[in-house]
């Protein structure tokens, strides 16, 4: 299943400084949820400091997750079932200074 993952607000720095990933998720019998995707991203894309991205099997507070321009909280958060061609964005709202 092909999806797009986008990073903003500095989150891309944890993923090899790449802001856009076109992903072809492996086929499997069970559907993909965002929770499943987070674990897959940790194993396959995340390059450093997982503690800045994940907390208790979800994204850390301060990271917005957007699915096709909609806040994931309106879609069931980590339980949202990913659809082909979805665009999933991760945006950090926390900035140092």
From TrEMBL:
InterPro entries the UniProt entry points to: Beta-grasp_dom_sf, Mopterin_synth/thiamin_S_b, Urm1
Modification after translation (UniProt): C-terminal thiocarboxylation occurs in 2 steps, it is first acyl-adenylated (-COAMP) via the hesA/moeB/thiF part of the MOCS3/UBA4 homolog, then thiocarboxylated (-COSH) via the rhodanese domain of the MOCS3/UBA4 homolog.
SUPFAM superfamilies in the cross-refs: MoaD/ThiS (SSF54285)
GO cellular component term of the entry, any: cytosol
Domain of life: Eukaryota
Signal peptide extent: none
Pfam families: Urm1
Cross-link (Glycyl lysine isopeptide (Gly-Lys) (interchain with K-? in acceptor proteins)): 97
Chief localisation class: cytoplasm
Pathway noted in the entry: tRNA modification; 5-methoxycarbonylmethyl-2-thiouridine-tRNA biosynthesis
Alphabetical UniProt keywords: Cytoplasm, Isopeptide bond, tRNA processing, Ubl conjugation pathway
1-thioglycine found at: 97
Single GO BP term: tRNA wobble uridine modification
UniProt key word Lipid metabolism: no
Location(s), subcellular: Cytoplasm
Family: Belongs to the URM1 family.
Record's function text: Acts as a sulfur carrier required for 2-thiolation of mcm(5)S(2)U at tRNA wobble positions of cytosolic tRNA(Lys), tRNA(Glu) and tRNA(Gln). Serves as sulfur donor in tRNA 2-thiolation reaction by being thiocarboxylated (-COSH) at its C-terminus by the MOCS3/UBA4 homolog. The sulfur is then transferred to tRNA to form 2-thiolation of mcm(5)S(2)U. Also acts as a ubiquitin-like protein (UBL) that is covalently conjugated via an isopeptide bond to lysine residues of target proteins.
Name of the protein in its database record: Ubiquitin-related modifier 1 homolog
Organism: Psylliodes chrysocephalus
């Amino acid at each position: 299943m092909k999806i797009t993952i986008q990073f903003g607000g500095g989150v891309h720095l944890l993923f090899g400084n790449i802001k856009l990933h076109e992903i072809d998720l492996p086929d499997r019998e069970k559907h993909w949820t965002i929770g499943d995707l987070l674990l897959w991203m940790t194993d396959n894309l995340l390059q450093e400091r997982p503690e800045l991205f994940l907390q208790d099997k979800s994204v850390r507070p301060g990271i917005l997750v957007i699915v096709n321009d909609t806040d994931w909280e309106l879609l069931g958060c980590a339980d949202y079932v990913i659809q082909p061609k979805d665009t999933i964005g991760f945006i950090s709202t926390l900035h140092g200074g």
